[in-house]
Amino acid sequence: MQVYHFTEQPYFPAWNNHQGSLRVNLPNAAMDPKVAGDLFHRYYDEWKLADELGFNIMVNEHHQTATCMSSTVIVGLSVLARETKNARILVLGYPIGHRPDPLRCAEELATIDVVSRGRLDMGFIKGVPYEFPASNQNPVGVMDRFWESHDFILKAMTHQGEPFNWEGEHFHYRHVNIWPRPVQAPHPPVWTTTGSTTQAKLLGGKGYVMATLGSGYATRPLQDAYRAGYEAKWKRPAPPDRFAYLGLVATAATETEARRRGELIAGYLRSSAIVHVPFRNPPGFLSADDNAKMLRGMTPPRSFTKDGRVISMHSGSVQDLIDAGILFCGTPDQVYQQIVDFTEYCGGMGNLLMMGHAGFLNHEDTVSNLTIFAKEVMPRLKAYKQPEPQSVAA
């Protein structure tokens, strides 16, 4: 199993004075640029440590929010491509349906792959509903823009002949010829996320790495849908390295200390969805059918434990989050066993996206969390034998 360390680079000093919204419309007067600079340097120091400890690295971006200061992920990718030596660098994600210029996206990502000497993983995403006010895009048709941008970026990265032109529905270029082209051939690996079984089956047909974010014990149906799409296209079972899962992780020498850290990390879940109501579901973001189901109160709960107990990931206790597979928390032995149990439930999972920092966890606790995990959990996860793909094939 590969392990990626992830943090959203939050500006948590503003979290206790938000007046009802941490995203989109929280005035930036609530932020001190000097404090923000100190936090950025801290987070990059922790990623450098993660590289030295044997982790891979995951970065993302959100806009106009105190929950994530990474508003242009290419900056973080650029720093990490130069400052790290061994880690694969995953961007998950890159909201290409919002971007006005996929040619520039292709150029930026290809350059990161060259500077990092072929360590980039490209995670393309739709983005959460709060991103639309910042990008000024129309939510209607965003996935059409996404897929055309995706097709263009891959063609721009793989084309090595004469310059070509592109006349699509959303994008038009007279002359495409990116310099430099990426190191990895035909292009860096493609990842994406989904919470839809329909989309999961489509992704299986493409063979991309599918990540689910905090879906806990609702993950298996998504992976089974992916397996069905993969096997239909590739005529073999999907291997575990096609699956990734994002979970929060808190470990320490004692269970008491680990749960203290777990409580601090859970502050991320309790803060990330604090946003003014009008930004939560812009018209067109969800389908008409999905909106009708919401109005009828037919939306199924997102988070529940292995035995079917519904919990709220925004207000649940540390024990609730552990039971739901959202937080892996305890001594190294306990964390290892929780991750293995979850992987067995999934039928295999080759990539753990570990939120080793989140919420109010301070630098010293984060360093300890990463170090203990690297020394006492990660070696066992790398040696862990995944379930045979044939035994869980669709």
Would you write up a description of this structure?
The chain has 394 residues and is an alpha/beta fold. 40% of the residues lie in helices and 14% in strands. α1 (33-53) runs parallel beside α13 and α3 packs across α5. The two termini are 21 Å apart.
Detail the topology: elements first, then pairings.
Elements: E1 2-6, H1 33-53, E2 56-59, H2 73-83, E3 89-94, H3 102-115, E4 120-124, H4 132-135, H5 142-158, E5 164-167, E6 172-176, E7 190-193, H6 197-206, E8 209-213, H7 219-234, E9 243-251, H8 255-265, H9 267-271, H10 288-295, H11 318-323, E10 327-330, H12 332-346, E11 351-355, H13 363-376, H14 378-383
Parallel strand pairs: 1-2, 1-11, 2-3, 3-4, 4-7, 7-8, 8-9, 9-10, 9-11
Antiparallel strand pairs: 5-6
The radius of gyration computed from the alpha-carbon positions, rounded to a whole number of angstroms, is: 20 Å
Q: What is the count of DSSP helices, taking H or I runs of 4+ residues?
A: 14
Report the sheet-strand fraction. 5-15%
Alpha-carbon distance between the two ends: 21 Å
Sum this structure up briefly.
The chain is α/β, with parallel strands linked by helices and 394 residues long.
